[in-house]
């Protein structure tokens, strides 16, 4: 995820300084994606350079420090809408450790049945834990709730995939 668009989203609600943006981001995302103030500061510099935000003044911050306050520009609002309307598709080139593990185990003749069974058990254990956690999470569309829901679907898909690959033929000896 690009922090750039998360910050633009927050600035579309109200002008803010770097520290407040970081705190608001972490609060709204229930710390599911921690960011440091340096990352926010650098991103804000790029957004300002690119004309997506503008500096509108300073505000007395805590500990006697002045905080530079920024607001989103019309160009920034347009970029934000374009981001919201652009689908997020995982790259076909995404690395998947489990796929490589299964492929290499099959290649060298390791015990695939045991590997798949242990992976399925781990996925189901995690699925049960996340389902319990979800039961204690408020039902609104918070970042934490959305993340738990997404993880549940991912684990269910992993279990289905593991069931499926058990039915596939092993690699041919000469397919090296």
UniProtKB/TrEMBL annotation:
Pfam families: PadR, Vir_act_alpha_C. Residues 7-80 form the Transcription regulator PadR N-terminal domain. Residues 95-166 form the Transcription regulator PadR C-terminal domain. InterPro entries: Tscrpt_reg_PadR_C (IPR018309), Tscrpt_reg_PadR_N (IPR005149), WH-like_DNA-bd_sf (IPR036388), WH_DNA-bd_sf (IPR036390). It comes from the Bacteria. It comes from Corynebacterium canis. This is PadR family transcriptional regulator.
